[in-house]
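Notes from hallway chat w/ T.B., transcribed later so I don't forget. T.B. wanted the structure written out for a chain they're using in a teaching module, and asked if we could keep both sequence and structure tokens in one place. Agreed to drop them here.
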Amino acid sequence: MRKFLHNLISQLSNRRKKEIFIDRGFGEKEKEKSFNALCIHEVVERGFDIICFFTPGGIKSLIENFPKFKQNGTTLAAFGANTFKAAEEAGLVLDIKAPMPQSPSMVSALEVYLKSLPKK
């Protein structure tokens, strides 16, 4: 999926460049380990344009570690009803939701969103 997203973003180079972080979540046995990609602290510090959440646990981690987190232009994406609900309860605004009828996967939801951005 990472390679596909990189290719998608490259293809849309005539639009505003976006840097995306995808929270893949983790299972019970992996809770003590950090994410394969970046930990939530690095995500917030780097100021990604888009942060994708796949689990309510990712939302919970963001809020617990950064209780004063403000979106400030960061686009948030979520996958699944439970993750939508967690984001809503945390007071976050989701710009990208999947699955939806027009975008059954997160990749397709990101594609729809990125293509909707104004050109440079």
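Follow-up for T.B.: The beta strands are 20-23, 50-53, 75-79, 96-98. Might be a good example for the class.
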